[in-house]
Amino acid sequence: VKPVSFEYRAPATVDEAVSVLAEDPARTTVLAGGQSLLIELRYRTARPRVILDVNQVGGLDGLGVEDESLRIGALVRHAQLEHLDLDDPVAALMAAAAPSLAHPPIRARGTFAGSLAYAHPAAEWGALAVALDATVVLMSSAGERQVPAASWFRGPFSTARRPDELVTSVAVPLLGPGWGVAFSEHRRTHGTFAQVAVLAAVRIDNGRVRGARLGVAGGADRPLRATGAEGVLAGAEPHDDLFREAGAAAAAEADPVAEPHCSVDYRRHLVDVLTRRVLAQAAAWN
Ligand SMILES: Cc1cc2nc3c(=O)[nH]c(=O)nc-3n(C[C@H](O)[C@H](O)[C@H](O)COP(=O)(O)OP(=O)(O)OC[C@H]3O[C@@H](n4cnc5c(N)ncnc54)[C@H](O)[C@@H]3O)c2cc1C
Fold first, then answer.
1. For each successive 10 residues of the chain (286 residues), what is the average pLDDT?
2. Rg value, the chain, Cα
3. pTM of the complete model
4. What is the DSSP letter of 193?
5. DSSP 143-168
6. Three-state SS for 281?
7. Could you tell me the end-to-end alpha-carbon distance of the chain, in angstroms, rounded to an integer?
8. Which of 28, 35, 147 is the best mutation target for the ligand 1 pocket, counting ligand atoms within 8 Å of the beta carbon and taking the most?
9. Residue identifier of the C-alpha nearest atom 40 of ligand 1
């Protein structure tokens, strides 16, 4: 199948991009890395009247630390986060997760912001965004708006973005010293989306868990922050029994969706096993 005919626009500034979006928001689709959109166009599951290519827009490629957060511009590619030169456990977590995201050519083009905008329920960056309290920054002709990751994802391929809004960047708070991190994923074959992926950040002080973040991809119809399991860990002594309890709590709060190769029970089992695994690895970090 070939894409439907569309008008192609490639503005050079955010202001111009936002005015193109404002002309016909419901029938205009943003093109970033194109690694999901081009497939949708080919299958005609996306039938836009206008394609707004933002790859020439100045200022969207910024990547750096601002106000104790990693500010990721809308054109920052997955591969840049895989090889991030930053002395913070967030960089280690991104480096651990990124190799599970598709293949190197896809990571060279696809963007972090595009992944959050696409909102695949099993996307690694979605799990990271909810676990680390990221903020999505949007621009429209009405001005800037910020949406916390916790209220960004509305369901499979559905977000809080309004049709006239462009995601301009995402801010991921740094963790700082003392945090250990880990990532683990199960998928059918290399280069496919995860059946389940779990990532953890854990801070242990004086033999007790003083901070825990758990993000799950593929555990529900949207990225899941396993707050129940985080609660099990809070203030407790880190050991295998505790991680088993936390794994069971994460599995209980998961609400998986069945797929032909992955039943609800199997997904729940993966959440349990992978949660235990990442907690043990993150706790052993220091
Ligand atoms: C074979 C294959 C395997 C893959 N495996 C994985 C995987 O394991 N894990 C994973 O997470 N992803 C995977 N992907 C998807 C890939 O990560 C995409 O890069 C990502 O989902 C979308 O990023 P993009 O920049 O390519 O966005 P695009 O394809 O350009 O856009 C995707 C959607 O987001 C919207 N959008 C993008 N940027 C913006 C913006 N700035 N503002 C508003 N809307 C925007 C677009 O309008 C479109 O609807 C895979 C892709 C392929 C082809």
1. 93 98 98 97 96 98 98 98 97 98 97 98 98 98 98 98 98 97 95 95 97 98 98 97 98 96 96 98 90
2. 19
3. 0.97
4. P
5. EEEEEEHHHHEEETTEES--TT-EEE
6. helix
7. 52
8. 35
9. 167
